[in-house]
Amino acid sequence: MKRSNIIMVVATIVISLGSFIAVLVAHYSPVLGLDLQGGASVVYKPARTVSQATLQQTISIIRNRVDALGITSPNISQQGNDIVVQLPGVKDASRALKIVGQTAQLSFRPVLCQVPAYAKPPKGFKVPSSAGSLQCPTTQAQSTVFAYVPTTSITNVPQNKPALLPIHGDPSARYIVGPTLLTGAALKSAFAGVDSSGNWLVNFSLTSAGSPKFDAIATKYYHQQIAIVLDGTVESAPTINAKTFGGQGQISGSFTQTQAQNLALVLKYGALPVQLQQQTVQTVSPTLGASSLKAGVLAGLIGLAAVMIYTILYYRLLGIVVVLGLGTTAALLWAIVSFLGHSSGLSLGLSGVTGLIVSVGVTVDSYVVFFERLKDEVRAGKTIRSSVDKGFSRAFKTIIAADAVSFIGALLLYLLSIGPVRGFAFFLGISTLLDVITAYVFTRPLVIILGQSAKVTGTGFLGMARGLGSVQTPLNNPVGTSVGVSS
Q1: Is residue 343 located within the same domain as residue 236?
Q2: CB 122 within 8 A of CB 136
């Protein structure tokens, strides 16, 4: 009995169980995907053709916004020219999706006047020759003509000329605002807070380049209203009460806590470089996700139990080797999936569970190939002791070939497919790799160790000889003596 075989078996068990215990101590567990724990999924399409660099920048900004919402292990990916955002476990899906895809075109514009929000011009306003346009009745803006901007297209507001814009939270009025004075690029960061009276507001800081520009605006429009416009909506129109701000400022108004926090999040993580259009939106309830998880786990356990019972009855002691091998592989796989879920955002969806269940069949096939090769060796008149090592050497080529086919198929699926199919391919591929490793460092040395022990190679119910269909003396039987052939 070679010492190296014992070391490999013990090392495999220690590594597998040690990794499993480590993730349990760290309170890590597989991060469930959208279809298993519920959540929301949305597909965004850029409103115009953009470069790959712009798409990647957009994805990066979306990821920052999602992280700020505290969503565990989101999946944000590019599929063709679309951006797919999956938010497993999100409680307020509508709020999250609104923040994630908001273009956030922030601008500071002077308020020219306030008008009622009616399509028909109210009394006291002059209507120029171009239909759908109005004029401010004030001396300052008497000759200012602005384009009427419908609510359905507020994200397409022109920046270089006056416009009629709705006021956030007040559908009964609108502002006529002048051309953009400053954009959101001048902002450095933003966060929600409360003032001395307990009112919610948004504190913001300006960049070194934006600070003097903002002070210049404050000096020119001192004691006048400046509209803070976000995506074509006037979020607030505070009166400038200082000529210099020193790089710091506040956005105040009738904000609720949620409104202030939402605005701060969007401003903090920047404007998306391109407007996004929602293509499809999918929400999965936690109840439906839990039902899917239970069904998948139950199917896996029933299949695994059937495999274990069959292999023990058919291969006897070698069937127990199968059970031990599946156990070590499962422990190591649990540790890997749990660690990647918390370190790299890997999520386990229903398709991934399917991949794991299929991988059980791939793993058991490897054992069957090995054990059937041992049967051939025994039928040829060799002892179990002399068969185990040579039998594996010949069977391992077949195992490598079979697993290579499975892995190549999984790799191609992962590279060429989208959505849940990639999850199936990933977990099938990683399980296939573990099968090859386990076969060499655990199954082979363990069977060799058992094959060299007279206590376990006998013809009893669990004896290896019984499982291999041999009736010969367990050890040291010369080749060709009393070999029973059994199918």
Answers
A1: no
A2: no
